Amino acid sequence: MRPLPRLAAVAGLVLAWGGAGLADPSWSCGCGAMVTAGSELSVDRETSIVRYDDRTRTEEIVMRLSVRSEARDAAWLFPTPSPAEVELGDRGWFRQLDALTEPRVVKRRKWWGRPGGNETSGAAPGAAGGRGGVEVLGEKRLGPFQVATLASGDSGALAGWLERNGYRLSPRLEGALEPYVRLKWTYVAVKLAPDAGRALIGDLDPLRVAFRSDEIVYPMRLSRLARTDQSVHLYVLGAHRVEHHGPRGRASRVTFAGWVEPRQVAAPGLREFLGGRLFLTEVVNGWIDPETIDDDFRYRYTADRAHREVEYETEYVTFLGVPAGYAIVAGVLIGVGAVIAVRRRGAAG
């Protein structure tokens, strides 16, 4: 497993009303701001799988967050270009894709220096409702989550609906929603169900969101609300390799690119999700300054050039606890000294 800073991608979190005053957002991500009413909250990692079908013009995003908090009232708002279908995902998919894209390990021997760890190459230092109203396109319960799909042409009306239905929307987030309102996007509102009986902690159940889109898009505009740098880790599956367009962080790179087939993964659901041979591009976009986020992430096809990072494991060769290089040199010097001494004795005799 690669220790990546997997913060900030698809889920925009808002406070679900719990009778307390609205706190300032303690964390922002791709689609909004995570806040709690007086509870400490941090996101340890976040990863999303993005699959695009050119034939049906359908995009699917499977998102997973790992959170440390005692909050029981958080929720998130997820904008989509068209009405979305939502269901629970499988957390095992992430482990299988992570294993599939692991760096190639190359062992090399080192005859000088002392053991002190590995040396690594390639490591880095993530239909609208009418104006003035909200249309509820669907509501359902998914595991511990209560999910609603909404359409609205007015960010103020959307904020009002959320508050009346157990959410609390930051005024800053309301303004940040305006670009999506102008584009007539829809929204998936998700919160922990009142009877879920659990805190917002650990690996949350992944959510799988599907919607029609003319392009591969990953909502990011609302991360501009963040107070700290953001990072996004994506597995993008499509007909070809993709290249990133949009805001870019100081540590942005492609960590894997190559063809994958259903037979390479074990989970039946993931094999069905792949459907056939697809090109997988693993993109890590880290340390993004929130002030530079003025658009969503977009991914466009490029040449199908394969890439896999390489990690070098250094094996230090030693002799009696001494680096072998020094031992060899010492041995040569001792041998040369012995030859010279013998010759000198011979010349003296």
TrEMBL record:
Transmembrane segments: 316-342
InterPro entries in UniProt: DUF2330
Cleaved signal peptide residues: 1-22
Keywords: Membrane, Signal, Transmembrane, Transmembrane helix
Residue ranges, annotated region (Disordered): 111-130
Statement: the UniProt record of this protein carries the keyword Transmembrane: yes
A Pfam family: DUF2330
Protein name per the record: Uncharacterized protein DUF2330
